[in-house]
Specification:
The structure is a single chain. With 495 residues, the chain is an alpha+beta fold. The chain has two domains: 8-301 and 385-476, Amidase signature (AS) enzymes, CATH 3.90.1300.10; 308-383, no CATH class. The chain is 36% helix and 16% strand. It has 14 helices and 17 strands. The chain has helices at residues 8-17, 22-40, 48-63, 105-112, 155-162, 179-185, 226-236, 278-293, 308-326, 332-340, 349-356, 361-384, 425-431, 463-476, and strands at 43-46, 74-78, 116-121, 133-134, 138-139, 141-142, 145-149, 168-173, 188-191, 218-223, 264-267, 297-299, 387-391, 410-413, 416-419, 437-444, 450-456. Helix 9 (308-326) runs parallel beside helix 11 (349-356).
Length: 495
């Protein structure tokens, strides 16, 4: 039997029943990677010898009667996570030989849960792109169309899952880096509530792995089913044992509802700052139609929705000011001269991004105060609705574009070009206030490319969008393997 596209949940059941061993699953996954990944380039740092040894230990543990959540399950890990003994470069050539001595906290949690780590997946330079390519490891392609990107910055993980390279993966999300690759590759991903899963050890090369509270950025699960997302989130969530874990214990509230007909959903498919492409709009409408058909209450407008223009502006200010603080893009004098040349009337997102490059602390505090007002607005909205359905990006996966200056790139939306980074406004809708958001497949474009949408929930109510994702998967279908491999039985996605 080919186990490559089975869910983690199914593999756990098969392992418990003795239908397969972890060694067999691991050998099959490694053989598949060695046979198929030359064209996709998802696995940039293989760790096959240690994976085989871990699989043997998992089988021995099971023979002794042990049973852990992921015991014996082959998984992958985004390159940006520290794994002791493996290089962590973030795609930056100056760090190609950096090898951390300790595992990231999430890698430790995977291993403690019994997972078998096959290796690391590819990322963009410094994790700062909507594609996954770098000078060290090359370009990761989309398994549905190798001329297109798999997304970024967790693009290697999404491509690996869509290709059957392991059952689960862990990534990170600051600007849609979990959700966009999931959308482009036709898989599932979950951006947790800000702070729900500790990030220690998911840190730039050479930086100390400290238990810091990151702004905007989260780590989260990726999978081929919604139930697997919940399984992996349970492993990842909970406070860092070095800090809040000394006093706090995590208890997430249950999903608000167990039936689709009980959900109250706000559906949005228009943004004032960028159009939504027809293929993505159709995906949103397919999900909305499935909800209506199931008897859910679906609305298209609400006065409770926070202002989308201000939300995008605040997001860009917080995102870019933080990015420039970590990775300077030029001298302060040059940047200030460029900002001085802007018209006071220019409030476009390019101008917003440029001004954010010279943010003062006063500027950041002001933006943060506005963010708190938005968070309160979302609390009021989620008293009326259980989830928001909206795009992740305006288009399906786009062709590889490796222009050195990303500010010169453009995104084609139904034949009209727009600034490349403007497509981040949909991802920022959940990121700026720190809300949980689950990326789910929503059919395919006329060209046959995957299309996904995100289900946004209330803070720390991650189980609600995850449950909604599971119910939609049951009703409409979910992951479908790319045409080369065919769809697993019972999991064909709607067109």
């Amino acid at each position: 039997m080919d186990w490559s596209f089975q869910s983690a949940e199914e593999l756990v059941a098969a392992l418990r029943a003795g239908a397969v061993t972890s060694v067999e699953l691991t050998d099959e996954a490694i053989a598949r990677i060695e046979r198929e990944d030359e064209l996709i380039n998802a696995i940039c740092v293989p760790d096959f010898d240690r994976a085989r040894a871990a699989a043997q230990r998992a089988d021995q543990a099971r023979a002794r009667g042990e049973d852990r959540p992921l015991l014996g399950i082959p998984v992958t890990v985004k390159e940006s996570y520290d794994i002791a003994g493996l290089p962590t470069s973030w795609g930056m050539p100056q760090h190609r030989d950096y090898v951390p001595a300790e595992d990231a906290v999430q890698v430790s949690r995977l291993k403690d849960a019994g997972a078998v780590v096959l290796g690391k997946t590819n990322v963009p330079l410094g994790l700062q792109d909507i594609q996954s390519f770098n000078e060290i490891h090359g370009t990761t392609s989309n398994p549905w169309d190798r001329d297109r990107t798999s997304g970024g910055s967790s693009g290697g993980s999404a491509a690996a899952l869509a290709s059957g390279f392991g059952a689960l993966s862990i990534g990170s999300d600051l600007a849609g880096s979990l959700r966009t690759p999931a959308h482009f590759c036709g898989i599932y991903a979950h951006k947790p509530t800000l702070g729900l899963a500790p990030t220690r050890g998911m840190v730039a090369p050479q930086a100390p792995a400290l238990p810091v509270d990151l702004d905007l950025a989260v780590v989260g699960p990726m999978a081929r089913t919604a139930r697997d997302l919940a399984l992996l989130l349970d492993v990842m969530a909970g406070p860092d044992p070095l800090t809040l874990g000394k006093a706090h214990h995590l208890t997430l509230p249950p999903a608000r509802h167990e039936r689709l007909c009980d959900f109250r959903v706000l559906v949005i498919d228009e943004h004032p700052l960028i159009p939504t492409g027809s293929a993505v709009r159709a995906g949103v409408n397919r999900v909305a139609a499935a909800l209506v058909d199931a008897g859910a209450r679906v609305e298209r407008r609400s006065p409770l929705l926070p202002d989308l223009t201000e939300a995008a502006t605040l997001y860009m200010r917080l995102l870019i000011s933080g990015a420039v603080a970590r990775f300077p893009v030029g001298s302060d004098e040059q940047l200030r001269a460029r900002v001085a040349g802007l018209s006071a009337d220019d409030q476009g997102l390019d101008a917003v991004r440029l001004r954010a490059m010279v943010f003062s602390h006063h500027d950041w505090v002001e933006a943060n105060n506005r963010r708190e007002l938005h968070r309160h607005g979302w609390r009021q909205l989620f008293a009326e609705f259980d989830a928001v359905v909206c795009p992740i990006t305006p288009t399906p996966a786009f062709p590889h574009d490796h222009k050195p200056n990303p500010m010169e790139r453009r995104i084609d939306i139904d034949g009209v070009e727009h600034p490349y980074f403007d497509q981040l406004v949909w991802a920022g809708l959940a990121t700026m206030p720190g809300l949980p958001a689950t990326a789910v497949p929503a059919g395919r474009s006329p060209e046959g490319l995957p299309v996904g949408v995100q289900l946004i929930g209330s803070m720390f109510e991650d189980r609600t969008p995850l449950r909604l994702a599971e119910l939609l998967e049951q009703k409409t279908g979910g992951f479908q393997a790319p045409p080369k491999w065919g769809a697993p039985a019972g999991r064909s996605a709607p067109r």
